[in-house]
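Box S1 | Example of a co-folding query
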Amino acid sequence: MITLHGFSYSNYYNIVKHVLLYKNIHFTEDTQYGSNDDYLAISPVGKIPALTTAEGVHLSESSVCCDYLEETCPEMPLYPADTTERARIRQVMRISELYLELPCRRLIPFVFTKTAPPDELGKDILGVVDRGVGALNRLCTFDPYIAGAELTMADIYLRYVMSVVDLIGGGALHRDIGADIKGLKEWQTLMAQSDVSKKVDADQAANREEFFAMIKARMNG
Ligand SMILES: N[C@@H](CCC(=O)N[C@@H](CS)C(=O)NCC(=O)O)C(=O)O
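Box S1 (continued) | Returned holo structure for glutathione
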């Protein structure tokens, strides 16, 4: 059986968990906060999430784990059959990670400690984010999904990218970044309605207290 390592408050963990649930793949969850050396044997950079395959092979990096699941469990496909269309799905995923999630992630410590980031840092980050916003406006149709009628890996990826972008937009940048992406709000509402999203969101909420207790303990120790 597949094991998913990590914690439910993590947006990257939830990308892979959403794919597992969507594809009805049996898996177990191993709660890890990535702080111990043993975990490096599972996830070489120590990042959350990691996946252990049924054969006992450890994999990390959420997009790698997602592609592994797609290739080994092709039922309920999350990529189009056409190679070019598949590349376009991966283009949205990569752009949303590089130009939205990663720059916003830099401000997470400020939000968690309720401190304002330096103006210059905020400005730099918004400069990158604006390029990502422009790209998503050019690439995503949201009719109703990112690439049209079918749900794809890009929809799952962007859903959990936006959880960090929304957190940082509201908590540190004083800007509703999602409002600048045409059709995104309606798409977020649609995405939230699936049983899989509801399960992932409920598990995330249930992990909140333990996650922040862990953060607090790390900051104090
Ligand atoms: N590129 C990685 C990023 C994963 C990531 O940043 N995960 C966070 C949790 S949401 C993490 O492990 N943070 C702890 C750390 O950076 O040491 C992926 O796609 O899986």
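The first helix runs from residue 11 to 22. The first strand starts at residue 2 and ends at 6.
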